[in-house]
Amino acid sequence: MSVRWLRNTILYVVLGVGAFVSVFPYLMVVFTSFKTGRQLNSTSPWLPAIPGTLGNYTKLFNGSIANIAFPSYLWHTVLLTAILTAGQLVFTTLAAYAFARMRFPGRELLFWAYVATLMVPNVVTMIPLYLIMRQIGWVDTWMGLVAPYVFGSPYGIFLMRQFFQTLPRDLEDAARIDGAGVWATLTRVILPLSKPILGTLSILTVVFAWHNFLWPLIITSGDDTKVVTVGIASLQGNLGADYNLMMAGSFVALVPLIVVFLLFQRSIVRSVALSGLK
Predict the structure, then answer these.
(1) What are phi and psi of 182, to 5 degrees?
(2) Fewest CB atoms within 10 Å of the CB: 30, 138, 181, 218?
(3) 177-236: per-residue pLDDT in tens?
């Protein structure tokens, strides 16, 4: 009993230290966001502000910062996340079902060639994508912002295809015997059984879209299309960075994901398990 107790104690201590190391940067974001410039320079960054101030948040939302429309950036991020999530669910599902169930020449070759693009870093395709968007006039537009991601992704299609292949074909055969076509089979038989993987894809897409920074930074320049990640980076001016405002903006951007995690803890844990699906 003593050996087991000691082993469990060591395990929980290690887990506790790991959890603290993971959470500590977020605590520093919160502490810094409630500090004034004088407090930031006079206190340790890992100590909370005493007394704290809401002045940084007030500046973000009352429009007192020149050339920064932070509430608009938040709305743009919400809209971008909704568009990308809806697009991923629709187009990824259709493509994955075609690769998993339909027979056509070159299906396997086309699928694995598409999945092989996962090995190409995103930064490699940024300049070609930007040049394409400039040629068709989509720079600094919503079309240019969403076009590279709204029609599906290699990882999402791979994930959905692998899940579809685990479903019994007998269900589809029975639906066809009853007179159901491809669309009816997909919507009435396959999709109701695919809620876990659809939830996984939704969560992964929401997190990606909310945190996406490099492509919005490249393709957008005006306030009409700027998202919150680029808006936070804009708080760093030529005369230096206002870390108090940046941390306040970072915490505001972090709150929606914290809410999503608290509301969908079980789905997120399940999504982590399903994302390792063979």
Answers:
(1) -65, -45
(2) 181
(3) 888 788 888 888 888 888 888 888 888 899 889 988 889 989 988 888 889 988 888 877
224 and 87, same structural domain?
yes
**95: containing domain:** 64-274
CATH of the domain at 212: 1.10.3720.10
Q: Looking at the structure, tell me whether residues 124 and 75 fall in a common domain.
A: yes
Number of domains forming the structure of the chain: 2
What residues form DSSP beta bridges with 240?
237
The model's pTM is 0.84
